[in-house]
Amino acid sequence: MFILILSIFIRLVTAGEDSTPFFDSAVLEKNDLVDVQLLDSTIAVHLAYATADNFTGKNMYGTLTECYLRREAAEKLVMARKLLTEKHPGYRLYVYDGLRPRRIQQYMWDLVKNTPQQSYVANPASGSIHNYGAAIDLTIADEQENPIDMGTPFDYFDVKAQPRYETYFSDSGLIAGSNLAPSVRKQIRADIVKSGLLSTESRDNRLLLRSVMEEAGFVSIPNEWWHFNAFEKNVIRKRFTIIE
């Protein structure tokens, strides 16, 4: 066990401190991967995995500052930004993660495998949609570039972050009469005790984010309010290849 943990730690340090380019320019060009800020400089990019402020507690991206996506996904993101500006002038999109190579996915998997967090990290064997450059993690920021209240932080691995349960975090009285499995009811009640209910403001903010992203063509998922896919998963896996 000690050797495994040491091995993972060394690989993470290497990933964060490697002086070679994080993405090979030939790979970016071949796969038509673009820096989203070159298409729209008003989109804020603060890569969570280029800091220690993420669920791993480690910098996994080194000095990377750019968010890369497939061009079609990046163009949809620009459309979402325009829609957000129309709905709420002064707000801007604030990106946490985009293209993530599978080698980093493997590091994440090694950290969470056989832990309660495993369900939140895609198995690198099949690949995360991030590994295809067709998924984006993001929130909304205000005029001062401060993320607005979404009820939980990014990378909050508990049920309060899951859109499918927002109704119960807005009105806990609905839990008892629901068709939820007893184990899920227990999780929701425990998370309410731990972190409280969703405020009207935070739920409205989530709805705003989903509305602009979905109107732009993205697909939301039921277990992370911050994650959106550029297409349905089966389409992505057929059309694109994983970036190693």
Could you please describe the fold and organization of this structure?
This protein has nine helices and seven strands. With 244 residues, it is an alpha+beta fold. It folds into two domains: 2-151 and 202-239, Muramoyl-pentapeptide Carboxypeptidase, domain 2 (2-Layer Sandwich), CATH 3.30.1380.10; 153-198, no CATH class. The strands form two sheets. It has a five-stranded mixed beta sheet. It has a two-stranded antiparallel sheet with strand order 1-3. A hairpin with a 6-residue loop joins strand 6 (219-220) and strand 7. Helix 4 (71-87) crosses helix 8 (200-215). Residues 1-19 have low confidence and may be disordered.
Question: Which helices and strands appear, and what pairs or packs with what?
Answer:
Layout: H1 2-17, H2 25-30, E1 33-35, H3 36-39, E2 44-45, E3 68-70, H4 71-87, E4 92-97, H5 102-112, E5 135-141, H6 166-170, H7 182-195, H8 200-215, E6 219-220, E7 227-229, H9 233-239
Parallel strand pairs: 2-4
Antiparallel strand pairs: 1-3, 4-5, 5-7, 6-7
Helix pairs in contact: 1-5, 4-8
